[in-house]
Write a structure and sequence with these properties.
Number of helices: 8
Keywords: ATP synthesis, Cell membrane, CF(1), Hydrogen ion transport, Ion transport, Membrane, Transport
CATH topology of the largest domain: Peroxidase, domain 1
Strand order of the largest sheet: 2-1-3-4
Subcellular location: Cell membrane; Membrane
Structural class: alpha+beta
Largest sheet: 4 strands, mixed
Oligomer: single chain
GO molecular function: proton-transporting ATP synthase activity, rotational mechanism
Number of strands: 4
Radius of gyration: 20 Å
Strand content: 15-25%
Helix content: 55-70%
Distance between the termini: 38 Å
CATH architecture of the largest domain: Orthogonal Bundle
Protein name: ATP synthase subunit delta
Order of helices and strands: HHHHHHEHEEEH
Pfam family, one: OSCP
Length: 178
């Protein structure tokens, strides 16, 4: 999803506020949850952009849905709503997380495996692959994919490290057919 200049500015302002209040890590965690809500509920956008509902009702809806989030997040969502930019909320969240990750030396990664990884395995993968992308650590999301047969596939940004049995079999097949 492309990032608009406005989304980047709102994200930077929110990041500066979170940093001033010393709640960057909490804000990142809350924004990840909020992103899930926004991406899985298209009806929410329809309600928030519906002119039949008053601004106060829309703000009340945001406050209710995100009551457990950091107050600065609720206020940021209300600002986006008031500025008629609520449709950019996912871009603002993505931009915020990117800014926070850059400041903290962290990168998001997806690790595909045939079964759930233990905390120790996740830590070892984070340590090993973080150095390959010049970061301090990785924020790993573990996805289960039984079709891999064995091994892991790590995706960090646009880099793919594929050490799965399926990948090795495909490589062997290409070599034999060449």
């Amino acid at each position: 999803m492309s990032q608009s200049i406005a989304a980047n500015r709102y994200a930077k302002a929110l990041y500066d506020l979170a940093k001033d209040k010393n709640v960057v890590a909490e804000t990142v965690a809350d924004l990840r949850e909020a992103k899930i809500v926004f991406t899985q509920s298209k009806d929410l956008f329809n309600l928030l952009e519906n002119p039949k509902f008053s601004q106060s009702k829309k703000e009340e809806l945001i406050a209710t849905i995100f009551a457990s989030e950091q107050p600065i997040i609720i206020n940021a969502f209300k600002v986006l709503l008031n500025k008629k930019r609520i449709h950019e909320v996912v871009s603002v969240i993505d931009s915020f997380i990117r800014i926070a990750n850059d400041e903290l030396g962290v990168e998001d990664a997806i690790v595909y495996s045939t079964e759930a990884l233990t905390d120790e395995e996740i830590q070892r993968i984070s340590t090993t692959f973080a150095s390959k992308v010049n970061k301090n650590s990785l924020n790993i999301t573990n996805e289960i994919d039984a079709s891999l047969i064995g091994g892991i596939k790590v995706i960090i940004g646009n880099l793919i490290f594929d050490n799965t049995i399926v990948s090795k079999v495909n490589d062997l097949r290409r070599q034999l057919l060449a």
